[in-house]
Amino acid sequence: MLQIPLKQRLELLEEAFPKVSRVAVLTNPANPEQEARVKETKVAAQGLRVQLQILQVRESSTFDKAFLAINKGACSGASSAR
Q: Phi and psi for 7 in degrees, rounded to 5?
């Protein structure tokens, strides 16, 4: 599967939807690489003036709660921090 860095995903999202202002990022805290990716994404989001909603999803049974939180947070987009 093609791995697109989160920073680039945000840039593409902002290019496709210039009015995007809030984006949800799903993370798995059990993955040791997640912390660095989330930090990189936060820096990119600041440069694009996009607010992030970071949601931790440890297992598939918690996706429903995550998507409810995304809906409640009025996010314009979502991505995973694979």
A: -60, -45
